[in-house]
Predict the structure.
Amino acid sequence: METSAATQRVLGSQSEAPAESLSPFDGVGRHRKWAALRRYSENRLAVFGAVVIVLLYALALAAPWISRYPYDQIQSGMRDKPPSAEHWLGTDRNGRDVYSRLIKGGQVSLAAGFASVVIIMSVGVVLGAAAGFFGGVIDGFIMRFTDILLSVPQLLLLITAASLFHPGLKTTVIVIGLTSWPGTARLVRGQFLALKGQEYVTAARAIGAGPLRIILAHLFPNSLAIIIVQATLWLSFAIILETSLSYLGLGVVIPTPSWGNMLQDGQRELIAGAWWLTLFPGLAIFLTVLAFNLMGDGLRDALDPRHRRR
Amino acid sequence: MHAGIWAYLARRAIFLVPLLLGLSLLMFLLIHAAPGDPVLAMMGERAASNPTYVEQTRKNLGLDKPLPVQYLYWLRRMVLHGDLGKAYTFNNKPVMTLIGERFWSTVQLQAIALFLGLAIAIPVGIISATRQYSTLDNTVTVGSFLGLALPNFWLALLLQIWLGVRLGWLPVVSGGVEKVGYPERLKYFIMPVIVLALPNIAYFARFMRSSMLEVINQDYVTVARAKGLDKRVVLYRHALRNALIPMVTVVGLQLPRILSGAVIIEQIFAWPGLGDLAYKSISQRDYPVILAITLLSGAAVMVVNLLTDLVYVLVDPRVSLTSG
């Protein structure tokens, strides 16, 4: 493709893993799956990331049982109280318990991130696969659209798209999902293009396999590694986007708490010096994003032996 | 200098035209599909009491015409006269004036953050790569992971609380910064620059390290060492040059991220820049301003992509112009 051809060549060795090495799930050797798992478990940072993720999801699922107060319970006379024995992380300007809101907000933010990534990956993989496999006009059309979307700073696109709908959890998920897929589409397209020329695909074609069979039985399984890595990394980006959008008041809106709108709430009480309203939700975002990044990086190193961490 | 470089440039530049047209059409449809009437947003309370006036204003702005006609009008004016129209809000200033007023304050801030980021990240990345697996290298690796995961709008809020409200050292927000004289004005830069430079440092340092490692492990470096060349000479004369090439591209590719960062960070610090203008124009449904900003930033990204490719071609003889 024309745009940034040199750029892609440069980055190719570093960000887009080469095709032929990425087949940990193919039929040749089941042991490779175990080899990948072993490589992953040897990476201490990656294991730390995975543990944190499991813990965070467990906390989100257990939210109703570990909350100390209903997250939307307003207590009069309890405005902006600092952390104490009754309210571990303090209270907000409506006298609501920050700890309980943080747990509920985590449920919302993690769910929003997860749902967005499902959309991103579905759209990105389908369009990338179509572009890479069919080539020609289809490829040209999809890739030009991708180029256009990638040229606009994403937050700008996100805010514009968010103003189309009423703000809320659903809007946030849809808008993030529909603006974030181009990178994935480009990556999957590249992978499909590289795999398409390999002998086993030619062989499959020669014995009469149709396009759908070639895609589902050969190209997709051999692209799974980069798709998984991509999905993991997007889980962290999606949470950053959700919290940014909610912070700006265009994402998840009160009374539903999310880590992003808790930060917006905290900013209102900034002059009052209520630091706990800002510190804790941000710390939660930080930890989540860090954990997903570590996990994504670990997965990339484990699944692609040539891209080992040096 | 390569032969045919102008042909290459021209070919790439021609490709930008349909992309920009596509971008403007997409954004045009997107903003017009949004509910909310710019005239009502503009007039606020007064609108309800005076429906004829609302109609008249809508007519004056050309908003009563069908969408395709509106788009073609906009396009014709822009292509033939380079005129992006007047803002609906912001005192009806011409869009170009408005953007011109905001442009420098964003560029100043982002340029400082970018160069500060590079000035710290490049040496850190190099040293980290040359002492692989040392304590320093591991610290850099962990540090860059932390830096990349840190939501910078959160850092901005924490700095506001700590340096602004609690200690009172720095102004919390930058409203009216353009009226402040120069030594005093620098104070307004400190917090936004820290916040914007930090992800740059983390990102560039990590990339510089891996780029340097990639080069160091190549055969010609081993050969140079085997010939008995001094380690420093090999590292800084042979390896570093090649390791810096990918950095050009990476810096170029950061532009969309930088512009995204401007939107939210300028919002937090009330910094009078383009990001703030973009956010406000979207929330006020100020169509001409939104269109102009997205189009200009899209064009900037495309041109920078082209330039990074070009620089790449110029500095790396292995990349040819024709393939790809």
Summary: Chain B touches chain A through 75 residues (CB under 8 Å). Chain B has a mean pLDDT of 85. The CA atoms of residues 154 and 323 of chain B lie 44 Å apart. The two ends of chain B are 19 Å apart (CA to CA).
